[in-house]
Amino acid sequence: MVSAVLAGYGEKLKAKPEIYREFQRVLHASMEYARSHPDEVFPAVGKEFNIDPGFFQAWFSRFSDFPVVLSDQDVKAIALLWDKAKELDILKSYPPVQDTIWKDALTENALAK
After folding, report:
1. Alpha-carbon distance 61 to 5, whole Å?
2. What pLDDT, in 10s, does the model give residues 31-76?
3. C-alpha distances in angstroms, 18 versus 22, 47, 79, 99?
4. Domain locations along the chain
5. How wide is the angle at C-alpha 46 spanned by C-alphas 43 and 52, nearest 5°?
6. CA pair distance 7, 101, nearest whole angstrom
7. CA 110 to the chain's CA centroid
8. 3-state DSSP call for residue 20?
9. What pTM was estimated for this model as a whole?
10. φ, ψ (nearest 5 deg) of residue 51
């Protein structure tokens, strides 16, 4: 399962790519901080939004994650979803997944460099 997809309009990405790269960097750093400091972050966010901090612990340990980074597995999952949607006649056609990914998207491969 792909946990989240960040989407943007091509013309906006082209117009100010540095803003979107910085957004990705900050979002990724924030998520990494939250994952490595749950005893600090979960109670603070819970207090701010009146949510039991145990919810965040359960959510991130049992249900979902938000890595911010697009993985090779995510790309395969998207392709599988689109294939199945086409088989069910929900989609008539679709481009190759790689063709829909922004060249500056934060990916596992980009982080490895």
Report:
1. 20
2. 999 999 999 999 999 999 999 999 999 998 888 778 888 999 999 9
3. 6, 33, 28, 21
4. 10-66, 69-113
5. 95
6. 9
7. 14
8. helix
9. 0.77
10. -125, 135
